[in-house]
Amino acid sequence: MKKLLIIFLFLVLIPSPAYAARLWTTGFELQWLSNNGEMEEQCSGTPFSMDTTRERSGAGALKFLRSTAGTGLCGKRGIGGTGQTYFRTYLNIETSASAQTAVLFVEDNNGADVAGIDLDTNDTLQMTYLSGGVWTDTGSPSSALSKDTWYRLEFFADCTSATTIDIEARLDGSTIATGTGLTATCASSSLLRATIGSRASITGEWYFDDVAVNSAAGTAQTSWPGEGKVVNLFPDGNAGDNNNASSGDCTSVDEVTPDGATTIAVLDANSDILDCNVEDPTTKIAAADTITLVQVGYTEAAASAASGSLAARVKSAASGTTSTGSTKTHDDTTYRWPIGDPATDRPFSLTSYTDPTTTVAWTVTGTNSLANMQVGVTAIDADPDMNITSISAVVEYVLATPSSGNRNFFFFFPFF
Which of 80, 126, 220, 242 has the most CB atoms lying inside 10 A of its own CB? Predict the structure, then answer.
């Protein structure tokens, strides 16, 4: 390993990403069912699988299926936030729940359940919260959801008080229930995680896609996530502006599902950089669609059980202005995608709401655009070596309206 006497701390190149209120985004595009993958899992009976036939956008969705009731909690655990947090998932029901169960719910800083949205046996949604150890419904249920149809579920929780909460549930943008000053416990006046799946031991089959979590603190995405589709843009194998890896290159980090140590690029000195061009975005997003944000994720591991650190990078064209994300540390040899749990220091390093060169919204095509984008990673502390096995851009977009331009293809999504 190359040794440097002074650890060079990278300053974020101007312009830096906006103070990001988007905490977490996933469309299950890595198709990686692992506690170190796109979301953490706490399940009995392995009811989750990746599905590539019913996705709302991109290439994958998360399938929940239980044909016999399991035991204990079951959920895919993602990021909560601070005290005031907005959550979104898209839900598609194949088989009704055998009993009322939460399909989206949040936990406080101690990991205790707080509140959420239940799915009932008649396919209606019901907002609920935990008070004195008892789950209590509040507000009226929604109308019944149709089978094999995608719906946008959103949930807001204000946990800034340790003893009361404010909550609101929305369905396709319309409020279905609100609750203010409800008696509930919020340890440390903070939310730690959101969970999708099922809280109860029931049978049923449903799907999730296009998940997003926003904090109320920040300068962008500080409220309801709203409409959005999520895809990942992967390296196309072609080198970008920099490859300081001692071994490996962009062909080592371009797989969809990370392959661990099988193919890696090794950054073994402070300030080493790997930049990669990405695949043609128009194979996944129409040129007229609106880009909400770009988050750069990477799967990496330290070469030994000592602490090293990295930061993500993005630019909209070769030799363009580079945005560099916050520094993230890792001190073991387990390969991990950013899981977005504050307790693990593994949320996304970089969220970009605007093109770093033009300083306006990202576009799909053009001189500075997703089509010419380079994503990468830089080693902040490369002692031990930092091994990178995958890099990709998580892109959220909104479909163009008919007046925004003609679309020559049709998306069918009866479904985040």
Answer: 80
**pLDDT, tens digit only, all 416 positions of the chain:** 433 322 222 223 333 455 568 989 999 999 998 878 887 767 667 788 999 999 999 999 999 998 887 655 667 776 656 789 999 999 999 999 999 999 999 988 888 889 999 999 999 999 999 999 999 999 999 999 999 999 999 999 999 998 999 999 999 999 999 999 999 988 888 887 888 888 888 899 999 999 999 999 888 999 999 999 999 999 999 999 999 999 999 999 999 999 999 999 999 999 999 999 999 999 999 999 999 999 999 999 999 999 999 999 999 999 999 999 999 998 899 999 987 555 555 678 999 999 999 999 999 999 999 999 999 999 999 999 999 999 999 999 999 976 433 333 333 223 32
Cα 244 from Cα 392, distance rounded (Å): 18
CA 361/CA 363 separation, integer angstroms = 6
CA dist 190 and 159 (Å) reads 6
Task: Specify the residue for token string 């996530």.
Answer: 225
Lookup: tokens for 310: 């990295």
Q: Any residues with CB less than 8 A from the CB of 248 and at least 6 apart, and which?
A: 263, 264, 265, 266, 388
* Triad 238, 239, 240: Cα angle to 5°: 120
Cα(312)–Cα(110) distance, rounded to whole angstroms?
A: 30
Strands (E), 221-289: 229-233, 235-243, 265-267, 273-278
Q: Which residues pair with 88 in a beta bridge?
A: 154, 212
CA separation for the pair 264, 388 (Å, rounded)? 5
Are 383 and 306 within 8 A, CB to CB? yes
C-alpha of 376 from chain center: 18
Return the closest-CA partner of residue 200 out of 65, 76, 99. Answer: 99
